[in-house]
């Protein structure tokens, strides 16, 4: 399976600032996903980012708050904009080669907002 | 609305004490059920995919089974290294060639030596 690297692994940010999380994959993948994992909650899909098309956002998530880039088949970024303490969470990148294969995950970015 | 409920939330076992984790689901048009293992500070690690009722998959001390309403993850003679959070997810077709996963909250398993 693909090796997925996320940067940064953790960060502490000030309220009102923005942070860009990078996701690098060691092989070309068609489908990339961004998830949020809050304490005691299930993984929640933020958006799907397929190369060559605009990201598709799930209900409750908007592009202005979570802009995503997918410049090629091995890289994506998620920006968390105008952060508030409610954005404190783990953000996970996930990839999938095709619908018949399972999704694989990076180790996540642990984000704390002061 | 699709729902995935995992029970128990936490399970504490003695080494060698076998048990089962449950994942009950309601989803229209199930296209697969996934089990993942998540260690602290790590992302979920894929374990199994089950597609149809009656299907079983095994890996070392783990065996996953599927019915029309739930899945079980059986752990036989667990070891301390099996301690982790186990996540269940159901997949359905979401249109335009895409499939979407809905995750449960997980079961935190602790195996005591």
Brief digest:
The complex is a heterodimer of chains A (114) and B (113). Chain A is an all-beta fold and 114 residues long. Chain A is built from no helices and eleven strands.
What does this structure look like?
The complex is a heterodimer of chains A (114) and B (113). Chain A is built from no helices and 11 strands. Chain A is globular and about 40 Å long. Chain A has strands at 4-7, 10-13, 19-25, 31-37, 44-50, 56-57, 68-72, 75-80, 89-96, 104-105, 109-113. With 114 residues, chain A is mainly β. In chain A, strand 9 and strand 10 (104-105) form a beta hairpin. With 113 residues, chain B is mainly beta. In chain B, the strands form 2 sheets. In chain B, strands 2, 4, 5, 9, 10 and 11 form a 6-stranded mixed beta sheet that branches. In chain B, a hairpin with a 6-residue loop joins strand 4 (30-38) and strand 5. The model of chain B has no long low-confidence stretch (mean pLDDT 95). The chains are: A mainly beta (114), B mainly beta (113). At the A-B interface, strand 5 and strand 10 of A face strand 5 and strand 10 of B.
The structure class of chain B reads mainly beta
Distance between the first and last residues' Cα of chain A: 36 Å
- Give the N-terminus to C-terminus distance of chain B in angstroms: 41 Å
The major β-sheet of chain B equals: 6 strands, mixed
What Rg of chain A, in angstroms, do the CA atoms define?
Answer: 13 Å
Which segments of chain B are poorly predicted (pLDDT under 50) over 5 or more consecutive residues? none
Helix content of chain A: under 10%
**Helix-strand topology string of chain B:** EEEEEEEEEEE
The number of helical runs of chain A is: 0
Protein chain pair with the most extensive contact, residues per chain: A-B, 21 and 22 residues
User: Percent range for helical residues of chain B?
Assistant: under 10%
Low-confidence stretches of chain A: none
């Amino acid at each position: 399976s693909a090796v997925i690297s996320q940067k940064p692994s953790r960060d502490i940010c000030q309220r009102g600032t923005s942070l860009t999380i990078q996701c690098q994959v060691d092989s070309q993948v068609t489908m990339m996903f961004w998830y949020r994992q809050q304490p005691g909650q299930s993984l929640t899909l933020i958006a799907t980012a397929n190369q060559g098309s605009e990201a598709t956002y799930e209900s409750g998530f908007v592009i202005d708050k979570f802009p995503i880039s997918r410049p090629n088949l091995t890289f994506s970024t998620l920006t968390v904009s105008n952060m508030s303490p409610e954005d404190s969470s783990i953000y996970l990148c996930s990839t999938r080669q095709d619908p018949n294969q399972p999704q694989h995950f990076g180790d996540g970015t642990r984000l704390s907002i002061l | 609305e699709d729902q995935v409920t995992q029970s128990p939330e936490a399970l504490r076992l003695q080494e060698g004490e076998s048990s089962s984790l449950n994942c009950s689901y309601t989803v229209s048009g199930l296209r697969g059920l996934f089990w993942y293992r998540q260690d602290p500070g790590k992302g979920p690690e894929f374990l199994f995919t089950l597609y149809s009722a009656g299907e079983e998959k095994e890996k070392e001390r783990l065996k996953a089974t599927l019915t029309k309403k739930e899945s079980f993850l059986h752990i036989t003679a667990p070891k301390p290294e099996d301690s982790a959070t186990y996540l269940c997810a159901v997949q359905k077709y979401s249109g335009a060639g895409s499939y979407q996963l809905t995750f449960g909250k997980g079961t935190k398993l602790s195996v005591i030596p």
